[in-house]
Write a structure and sequence with these properties.
This protein has about 325 residues and is α+β, with helices and mostly antiparallel strands. Helix content is about 40%, strand content about 20%.
Length: about 325
């Protein structure tokens, strides 16, 4: 589905919600109907029980017996082909949550198992879910959104005024941008998790870890000098692939890098920056480099190997911007 069609769906959802509220007002029961006469305006216990049962029935109507939901693979934007052999793509598969991996300001990450009942086929994924618009705290989002444009003026106005509709559009843009960047970088061979699918503002990603235990963030490690140099070279190679794709991470730090079996993995790209379309692209790139170079030199990497201006200049050359 095209990106602007997704936003049109959000808009129609809001219109539908307005219709439902109008219908609810129109269908308001007579005063006293289902209400205890002695407690004006409150539901009777019988009505409360009936309402609770209706809600429970609605939630449990289509829940598989061995999981939390049926696979959403068929309804989502899918990751690049060829799909990895470990991935379960059967529509009859069942998703089951195994716990929370990480909480953050913008999103929470859960461990999800997708299995095909009656078989031994199963895979683990990270389910990244952006928070509701009441709790979303993307910092400095105006700068990151430069270069990302909507096709309709109403959508642009809604995003500019940060209305409820506009905040959901922004959330959708974060998810769309991260999924698209991961797909592109994966195909180019960059060390990023495979993007399995995107459904609304939920991303399912390759789980980076072993037996349900997430790999550590770089910030958690204290590498020996030899390992530190290997990881730095891996990072420069990863940034070079991103630059060749015209992208900068936008919020890179030792907390947005994982190390799994000696391999560096770049994660958390909702604020990915287009180096060409965003006029502040080179600025974001330089800040990324300074952040990670400072971490590496602070742990013993010789400063001459991680001079921020030199590395940034090299990456801008790779991007064709110098």
């Amino acid at each position: 589905m095209r990106e602007h069609d997704q936003y049109a769906e959000f808009e129609s959802d809001y219109d539908h919600a307005d219709d439902l509220r109008w219908q609810a007002k129109k269908a308001k029961p007579r005063r006293g109907a289902g209400v205890d006469p002695g407690r004006r305006g409150r539901l009777t216990e019988e009505a409360k029980d009936r309402l609770a049962q209706m809600r429970e029935d609605a939630v449990d109507a289509d829940v598989p017996p061995d999981g939390d939901r049926w696979s959403t693979w068929g309804d989502a934007d899918q990751g690049p082909k060829p799909h990895p052999s470990w991935l379960v793509t059967d529509l009859a598969a069942v998703d089951r949550e195994l716990g929370i991996v990480k909480t953050g300001k913008e999103a929470d990450v859960f461990l999800l198992e997708r299995a095909l009942p009656g078989t031994d086929r199963a895979c683990l994924m990270a389910a990244k879910r952006y928070r509701s618009n009441d709790h979303r705290l993307f910092h400095r989002d105006a700068g990151y959104l430069e270069g990302r444009r909507m096709r309709r003026s109403r959508e642009m106005r809604a995003m500019a005024t940060r209305s409820a509709f506009g905040r959901n559009l922004i959330a959708e843009q974060w998810a769309v941008a991260e999924f698209a960047a991961l797909a592109k970088l994966w195909q180019m061979g960059a060390p990023v998790p495979y993007p399995v699918q995107r459904d609304g503002t939920e991303l399912l990603l390759e789980f980076v870890g072993t037996d349900g235990a997430a790999a550590p963030r770089l910030a958690q490690l204290r590498p020996e000098p030899d390992e530190l140099l290997v990881l730095w070279r891996q990072l420069v190679d990863a940034l070079s692939v991103m630059a060749s794709a015209g992208l900068a991470h936008g919020d890179l730090s030792a907390f947005n890098l994982m190390v799994h079996d000696g391999r560096l993995v770049v994660i958390d790209l909702p604020q990915v920056v287009d180096l060409v379309a965003n006029p502040r692209g080179p600025e974001f790139l330089e800040r990324d480099v300074r952040n990670v170079a400072g971490w590496f030199t602070g742990r013993g990497l010789p400063p001459e190997l991680a001079e921020p201006l030199e590395v940034t200049g090299m990456l801008l050359d790779v991007a064709g911007l110098r």
